[in-house]
Specification:
The protein is mainly α and 175 residues long. It has helices at 3-13, 17-39, 42-59, 69-92, 108-124, 127-138, 143-150, 154-174. The protein is globular.
Amino acid sequence: MTGEAEQLVARAREGDPAAFGELYADVWKDLYRFAYYYLGNAEDAEDAVQETVLEAYKGIGRLKEPAAFKGWIFTILTACCKRRVGGLIRRREQVQLEERPELTADAGEEGMSLSMELREALLQLKPEERRVVLLKVMMGYKSHEIAQILHMSSGGVRSKLSRALQKLRGYLETS
């Protein structure tokens, strides 16, 4: 985290809503993408991000280390997503294709089939493995960034990622 971002966190902790808004502006796309891939549809992802931002805004004063903001807000998002999953298991199978941003009319039948297979393969992973894969592959975070977000060691992240990708390959090869 840059010195400027740490100053924003310090201002937000003191109650400056504009500073919190700037922090949110820097992470909202990543929060949304994570929630979308975790929950499976746009509406639930938006709700989870909204809930996360509310919780983070209310709790920013308790954030002890300004440099940990990104990991802290992703921890809140993960908890929000986990809470939502309980009520979404049945709905998850009924995701509307038009809600899926990666599935456009241009994607064609083959692209839609591959995307659905990948989604099914992701659902076969354990939740922590899925989080690591989403953060690395879909969102482009580096191992040390994922380690900070998930409160793991970088080696643990690389190990989980390797095993999870191997599981995904195996699932996709048998489908």
